[in-house]
Amino acid sequence: MFRFKKPECSIFVFEKRTAEKLHKPKRKETVTEILRASVKMLERFRHPKILQIMHTVEESSETLSFATEPVIASLANILAYQEAGGTIAGPPSTGASGHHCPTGVPRPAHAKEYSFLDIELKYGILQITEALSFLHYSGQVIHKNVCPSSILITKKGTWKLAGFEFTERTNETDATDPVPCQPWSTRTSKLVQPNLDYMAPEIQINSTCSILSDMFSLGMVICAIFNHGRSLIQSGNSPSTYLKQMELLDEAVHNILPRIPIPLQEATTRLLKKSPGARPTAQLLTLIKYFR
């Protein structure tokens, strides 16, 4: 008699009532459509640094669920703990002089206590860079929502890219050339839009994106990691606030650089250039000294 051990997994459940505040039935359905499409994308892209789906979407009138390889938290969960004063001393910075996160704020319910070793951060950032390289060149897809909530940490400590809800196809001729895309809008629920605080400026200003837009977002993630979990842009889901803070981004990057490992500083500065052509691709980023 043989006994088979069932593989361990993590189950994600979306309660459809979460979208009920959108009121309009079509908008409510849009949320579930986006989630279904995201899971299909994850199933399509099999790569060691992309989250593995173990059981496809199952849906009822009240929920939508699916199973993945075992994860302990998203990077957003862990950074939320740090931002609320968890594992690192000292106030986080917005990068702009004279402003910092208020102290004594209650820790978010979703925050997860977890401390990264320096080597975990190094290889975690590398793993997401490798996932983007695969996505951009083999998958010919722009992720368009690289942010802490789209990065999941597995039980083995591997960082996996997920959150494929807002992808765009790359330019067929050159993946670094822009393609049309939708900017962030207050007329649409934030539930069905990317994270504005990590969005590349060309998306909001020119309604275009490319693989280099993902690289800007990765640069913002790197800064948040070394800024106690706090993004350099705090838009509050306001496009006008986003644009005002984007004008001050160079100063913000300059102020945060001393917290970032020296071998990563130059690359981070280039990732956050407002001109897409000045940013390194994922392929080039994997070659920097920091990852050796």
UniProtKB/TrEMBL annotation:
It holds the Pfam family Pkinase. InterPro entries: CIK-Related_Protein (IPR051177), Kinase-like_dom_sf (IPR011009), Prot_kinase_dom (IPR000719). SMART domains: S_TKc. It comes from the Eukaryota. One of its GO terms (molecular function) is protein kinase activity. Belongs to the protein kinase superfamily. This is Uncharacterized protein.
